[in-house]
Amino acid sequence: MPGFMLMEFVYSASPSMLMWNKEMVYYSYKNNTINGFVMVTGLNQKLLEVSQGSTIHQLVIDYFGNAVIKMKNNVMIFFKVEMKNAAELPQWEKKSKNVVLYLNPSGNLYMLIINGSSIHREVYPLKTEMFTYIHGFQDICPYLVFQHSMDLNVYYLDMGDEVTFWAQIVYIENLGLSTVVEIYRPELLMQTTDVNYEIARGICTKNQVCYTKIVPVYNTICFLITIYLVVNYDWDKYGCLMDLYYAIPFHPDIALYDGSTFVETVEANFILWEIHGRSDYSYNSSMKQVGCLREAQTWISMLEEHENSTLDEIWGPQNYRSCFQSELGPLGDLNQLYQILNHSGYNSLIWPTEYSGIYVFRVKIVDPNFRGEFENLPHLFLIESHLYFSPNIGKVAGFSILILSILGGILIVSYFRYVKIYRALIYVDPLPSHDQQDQTRKTAHELKKDQ
């Protein structure tokens, strides 16, 4: 493949990539076990032959593996990653128009038509165009339905996390189709797969459930703590605390005031530390997650560089280095926690989950482009994280039902017991009839005779 080459790796469990110049596209799939040049299906033609000698202008790949080759004369060719052959799409624009393909972050494909100083955008219906192309073919899809439960293109898992997903394929009986799950670096995952079949009226349905879990790896370092620090909170000096729930990450916002008048929200980057030496808080984002292009500064790295300086001196605008500017050399470890905060970022503080605590933080602006009176003042904010135990609704309901059942049982038993007692008592009529009075007198007279 002579000439200037472009290359792009694609999202795949097995390493795959595409490489192309102005005339042809080379593919390497499944860790280079399948490779070759993309050919146009039908007459098995090369790209230049289909486009009547025009060269490649763009190759665009979306998140789902759909690839579109645009030639300079606006001929469009479609193929899917891990496919060897491509298909020519219907003509969309004239050869003379200046057209550029654009793929937005949501995966939608657009055509930008450039006309002098103006740009017109059109949605390119790739799926519709592809269905139009294959409508006249005699090929029959081997399956009737294929569905799955994976809503995201990428799932981020930490050690101990797990993800469960399913895939279903419905096909004509005796075709023997199946789904395949490929894993990149399978030694990092524990995988469990469950496959179910269902056959009805000559149609076979196969469900496959995959349970994947990150294998936990524990690196435990134990320290013997011999110094305990007890600090009395100074209410008169610091004032009231901010009450926070321990399970919700806290994103601090710094505001600039002129006396009691709000001036602006500080957009610059800042750092913080606990003035009494507490280190049992953490951050919820890594350098990779925030998009660092190289290893960012951390408290550990700054302490190593300035061993004999105070925390207020070792890190500030004078030596701040942004991690979003690339440099030659190694990237460093981007899996470390990102310890720089700002107003618009996602990075936040997280608290220990075993106990409550009071934190007094010192804040410092490190962005050298920020200038104002704020940077020269001592900035403190005070936090109290609370460990609340929310009641379990199921347990509360079950315990309530148990108590009510016991009370109801006692009432029912008491009712039948008292009914039995009352029935056993002799009933005495307070207003006896004349016959009863005569009978009573007769009985008394007989008793006297016997005496």
From TrEMBL:
Question: Domain CATSPERE beta-propeller, which positions?
Answer: 4-130
Q: Where is the CATSPERD/E C-terminal domain?
A: 229-384
Record's GO cellular component terms: CatSper complex; sperm principal piece
Compartment(s) of residence:
Cell projection, Cilium, Flagellum membrane
Q: What is its main location?
A: membrane
What are the residue boundaries of the CATSPERE Ig-like domain, all occurrences included? 146-209
Family that this chain belongs to: Belongs to the CATSPERD family.
Protein name according to UniProt: Cation channel sperm-associated protein subunit epsilon
Give the species this sequence originates from.
Gopherus evgoodei
